[in-house]
Amino acid sequence: MTELTLVEAIQTALARALSDDENVILLGEDIGRDGGVFRATDGLIERFGAARVRDTPLSEATIAGVSVGLATQGFLPVAEIQFMGFIYPAIDQMLNHASRLRSRTRGRLACPMVVRAPYGAGIHAPEHHSESTEALFCHIPGLRVVIPSSPARGYGLLLSAIRDPDPVIFLEPKRIYRSIHEDVVDDGTALALDHGFILRAGHDVTLISWGAMISETLAAAERLSADDIDCEVIDLATLKPFDKPLVLESVSRTGRCVIVHEAALTGGFGGEIAASIAEEGLFNLLAPIKRVAGFDTIVPMAKLEDHYLVSGSRIRQAVKEVMEFS
Amino acid sequence: MSHDEQGESAGAAKHLCPSERVESFEIRYHSCLDPNGNVKGAAPAFANDRDLMVNLYRGMVRTRTFDEKAVALQRTGRLGTYASSLGQEAVGVATAAAMRPDDVLLPSFREHGAQLWRGVSPLELLQYWSGDERGSDFKAQRLDFPVSIPVASHIPHACGVGLAMKIRAENRAALAIFGDGATSKGEFYEAINMAGVWDLPVVFVVCNNQWAISVPRSRQSAAQTLAQKAISAGIEGFQVDGNDPIAVYDGCTYALDRARNAGSPTLIEAVTYRLGDHTTADDARRYRSDDLVSPHWKQDPIARLRTFLTHTLDWTRQEEETLIADCVSEMEKAVQTYLALAPEPVEAMFDWLFEIAPRALMEQRKQAIGLTDMPGDGS
């Protein structure tokens, strides 16, 4: 067992996948000799060669498009888009082809591919580097959207995503790439997709989050315990399809729910969770559902960035409000 | 600004620094038959292969017969919107004829000729264009991609397929066909660029039918040829007469051999003409007059090859009549089978989306089946 950061865990999972299955191919910008701008592919070209760890021209649409082609031929491409802000040209490929090829050929051709991208704010990166637009992908039928929140879950979920027979968008919260250390067993054990994780059991209120916001949410839960508020914390991990039974069961016990996400409030994935609880768990609620989310603004650059990010105090405030309601 | 001034400022003469030529390029146009079906100069040896020439001819007649049936079905409310390939049959048919069975075709939506040649059945094409998605689950052609409706976005897939062949050191090639409009799009440039950098066994065929719906070739690009776009990617590119099946076959055979043997990509611009509307939902007279179109009937690839066959390979009237009767009979049978087909059950829209279906999707599936069981008008 080794203590790893999230980015090291991603690298370890990629290495594991490459050595376990010769059909796994990595492609992306600067992933070869440079090891990726965040070093997620560090050392992989040396171990597995330039044919399997491929530096591409600057072509996000075609990185995804080539992955579609490779996937139909039995390869398991894992594409890296350097930053989420540059993923949008690839949406055409994901929406018009990867997500629907199996269906439109009635199973004749399939797209077992992963598109990885670092996402989210909090590292004072240049403009266009800080958005959390996961909800865009959650709206596309035929895709899975997975977001890890810790090194161990990063390792296990990425292996599952690579082995999954259908396309997966795998978004890595870059703010916690190096801030969390966790024991990771590199034994090839994957963590099932489509399942959430209860990271902390509690009786009073269910906090639901994903990605970098899990750290803030867990910290808020810890602080609130001092006020005798017992929070349950769920890491959604797979957003599409999200683990609705887990969410409904938790909320049925606590009667209260606060959803925390970094992405802009309007059209954010928190709305989908809230709607599901309203549809199927309304009468278990003791208080209105609260969403603590990014503002509906462009993510500001470095000088104002910290004011945009959801803070522990905003989460604690929302929890106190639902507790005070009843 | 006067014309003289424009000319001077645009020319090299005004530049003061010395310059030298660092690279020069040439785009060649290949053709074998003139519009009357006569051989220009020396024909390639395969042009004497009567079976091959007759098969090319049969492929084109078959395609046009299918086209006529499909348009008639659409006009009588029995088929969805359909994109006719009238006038450009030589491109699809001769391209596919140059391919080997284990190559992979990635077609745009107007390449019925290529698809039929590659073993997609007329029934499957009718299914697809009627909105039955089983039509892309080709029974006899398991390798080829379904048509791409979004323009140019399938071109990168050919790079992925070609890369798979290259990594496995297979002696195969991927071939993508797309229209002139597609060459204005980013994914086209990205794909030919990547094919060049990675030296992929891919053939890119531009079926330049001069029209992207209503926009003529001259308004699509200021490039003198579309083949020259290959130069920007550092790959080989040339034009062929797209209404000359011998030239198309020759160009594609050359490019496919190059892909298989050298693993290198080629861009072929097949210059043809769209004689029909963009689709059955289009009325081309809104943007081009019949006077503009009618001269192009003289370039008809089917009439041209028929003349060649008659003059050079003793094609008989009896053979012609038999061939046409065969094609008509095949298409009529396909239509009868098509019209008798029951649609897929409603759950088909769920059943192929994922290999491992999410639970929530299965709940929606149940709901959809339940809706069809409900009494009422089904709305």
Detailed description of the structure:
The complex is a heterodimer of chains A (326) and B (379). By secondary structure, chain A is of the alpha/beta class. Chain A is built from 12 helices and 14 strands. Chain A has helices at residues 6-20, 44-48, 60-72, 88-98, 101-104, 134-138, 151-163, 213-225, 244-254, 269-280, 302-308, 312-325; strands spanning 2-4, 24-28, 53-55, 76-80, 114-119, 144-146, 168-173, 182-184, 197-200, 205-209, 231-235, 238-240, 257-264, 290-294. Chain A has a 7-stranded mixed sheet, sandwiched between helices. Chain A has a 5-stranded mixed sheet with strand order 9-11-10-13-14, with helices on both faces. In chain A, strands 1-8 form a two-stranded antiparallel sheet. In chain A, strand 2 (24-28), helix 2 and strand 3 form a beta-alpha-beta unit. In chain A, helix 1 runs parallel beside helix 7 and helix 3 runs parallel beside helix 4 (88-98). Chain A is globular, with a radius of gyration of 19 Å. Chain B is α/β, with parallel strands linked by helices and 379 residues long. Helix content of chain B is 45%, strand content 9%. In chain B, helix 3 packs parallel to helix 10 (245-262) and helix 5 packs across helix 13.
The SSE order of chain B reads HEHHEHHHEHEEEHHEHEHHHHH
For the record, give the distance between the C-alpha atoms at the N and C termini of chain A, rounded to a whole number. 45 Å
Strand numbers in spatial order across the main sheet of chain B: 1-7-8-4-3-2
Element order of chain A: H for helix, E for strand: EHEHEHEHHEHEHEEEEHEEHEHEHH
The geometry of chain A reads as globular
N-end to C-end Cα span of chain B: 66 Å
Low-confidence stretches of chain A: none
The count of β-strands of chain B is 8
Quaternary: heterodimer
Query: Greatest chain-chain interface?
Result: A-B, 46 and 44 residues
The strand order across the widest sheet of chain A is: 3-2-4-5-7-6-12
- Quickly count the helices of chain B: 15
- Main β-sheet description of chain B: 6 strands, parallel
Unreliable segments of 5+ consecutive residues of chain B: 1-10
Rg result of chain B: 23 Å
Helix fraction of chain A by DSSP (H/I, runs of at least 4): 25-40%
Strand content of chain B: 5-15%
Quick one: biggest sheet of chain A? 7 strands, mixed
